[in-house]
Amino acid sequence: xxxxxxxxxxxxxxxxxxxxxxxxxxxxxxxxxxxxxxxxxxxxxxxxxxxxxxxxxxxxxxxxxxxxxxxxxxxxxxxxxxxxxxxxxxxxxxxxxxxxxxxxxxxxxxxxxxxxxxxxxxxxxxxxxxxxxxxxxxxxxxxxxxxxxxxxxxxxxxxxxxxxxxxxxxxxxxxxxxxxxxxxxxxxxxxxxxxxxxxxxxxxxxxxxxxxxxxxxxxxxxxxx
Length: 225
Description:
single chain
């Protein structure tokens, strides 16, 4: 006995009314699937899933996108990279960017952010090289960043020991709203001006009077011995 589309359709997923022009159930299914899809989904695949012609899926999706736009929603249904997906509306980008950056700094410690920045700018880089720059053991921080998907092993050092080399991931780029690490700000932007450096050095420099006091204290301590 052959199995019909209606027999095999999941409960609540009957799209037999589509041929009659009723797209209510199809719209619900498309919304549900696209809500959990991690990447843009082709109309062809959605059509196979719902057992509906891709042309009808395209028509319904376009209608849904127009409806969301007319209702002034904070999200949009867009056709990108050959498929359809939900995304935040471009008019809300400033708030979304603030939310992402705030959430990231709240979840990651200062040590993790420092390590992540070193990996981002120096990749590919080994665990030992990161530790040498930071001056502390970074095993735990590297493990945390790897588990959270911000960095990953991207190769091995050809030298002795063949240490694992780390680099940033697509999730890292997504969180920062970048297409590639080439879009990271130049490190030169963070180097202070010469006068600022001079002020910092002056604050660390031992002045003559301070040096005389320090020498006197040492002499007193020596005489006491």
